[in-house]
Write a structure and sequence with these properties.
about 325 residues, Glutamate/phenylalanine/leucine/valine dehydrogenase protein, alpha/beta, globular, oxidoreductase, seven-stranded mixed β-sheet, EC 1.4.1.3, about 45% helix
Length: about 325
């Protein structure tokens, strides 16, 4: 998170943390009690200028609402203590779609560098949760052809392109991805090696490894998940000429709009959704340009360019504060 926020150039940092459990095995009441007790244990460790939780795997806006409410019992009304809250409690417009939208802005920036656009290209997306569903919807709306998509329950493909609005409606009505009638069922593991222009892993880490990397047929990989490509796969894919857009940049849209939400809470003033999306696109485009500049200076990959940018910014801030060894 420190490198990601440095690359995005927002004054955040920190790390990931949470509770080891399976949310799908718990009732709403159990999840609420667990969240509130967790907040009671950490309320002195977090704060609106100290450590600001946000939703990730297994959590959502309701989880953030419980943390906000429980924290406020100890410290008074504090909407800025968490981001990703419901709109009714001070959440930001555009936050729900932010990571997926950021992935699309990042994809557009990369493709433009190669003289291409989303329209007319083929995409395979691993994951149809919050990130994957928004990315799929936005790519479909821009004329991209999504030929394969998967979630925890299964995978489907359609060479002519999956009807994403119809699939989203099917899922919203409680249907499973694999039961969608207008596409063929496929092996989930085959999605990563599906023939396509752009592969977007939006699920778990380590899914691209030395066992499957050599068989990947995509020309571009957009890392919407955290660490989906392990070091062995990274080396194999690079030798194959596959362009990888690293996670610390590609999926930074969520934390960027979390920053916007925090700013709005501190100001006590809500931005409209257009402003949120315009500012998000500006941050994503500026970050890509800065990464490319690093790549040109050091003759390195996008991943190394992104890490160099992030580490340099943190190192400079550390030096300016007089924290040198």
């Amino acid at each position: 998170m420190t490198w990601k926020t440095a690359v995005a150039d927002v004054p955040y940092g920190g790390a990931k943390g949470g509770i080891g459990c399976s949310p799908s095995d718990l009732s709403v009441s159990e999840l609420e009690r667990l969240t509130r007790i967790f907040t009671q244990k950490i309320h002195d460790l977090i704060g609106i200028h100290t450590d600001i939780p946000a939703p990730d795997m297994g959590t959502n806006s309701q989880t953030m609402a419980w943390i906000f409410d429980e924290y406020s019992k100890f410290h008074g009304h504090s909407p800025a203590i968490v981001t990703g809250k419901p709109l009714d409690l001070g959440g930001s417009l555009g936050r729900d779609a932010a990571t997926g939208r950021g992935v699309v802005f990042a994809t557009e920036a990369l493709l433009a560098e190669h003289g291409k656009s989303i329209s007319g290209l083929t995409f395979a997306i691993q994951g149809f949760g919050n990130v994957g569903s928004w990315a799929a919807d936005l790519i479909h709306g821009r004329g991209g052809k999504i030929v394969a998509i998967s979630d925890v329950h299964g995978a489907i493909r359609k060479p002519d392109g999956i009807d994403i609005p119809a699939l989203s409606k099917h899922k919203a009505e409680g249907g499973l991805l694999k039961d969608f009638k207008d596409a063929d069922v496929m092996d989930q593991n085959e999605l990563l090696v599906q023939e396509c222009d752009v592969l977007i892993p939006c699920a778990l880490g380590g899914v691209l490894n030395n066992e499957n990397a050599a068989n990947v047929r995509a020309k571009y990989i957009i890392e919407a998940a955290n660490h989906p490509t392990d070091p062995d796969a990274d080396e194999i894919l690079s030798k194959k000429g596959v362009t990888i857009l690293p996670d610390i940049y590609a999926n930074a849209g969520g934390v960027i709009v979390s920053y916007f939400e925090w700013v709005q809470n501190i100001q006590g003033f809500q931005w409209n959704e257009e402003k949120v999306n315009v500012e998000l696109q500006k941050h994503m485009n500026d970050a890509f340009a800065n990464i490319k500049s690093m790549c040109k200076t050091h003759d390195c990959s996008l991943r190394m360019g992104a890490f160099t940018l992030g580490v340099n910014r943190v190192a400079r801030a550390t030096t300016l504060r007089g924290w040198e060894a």
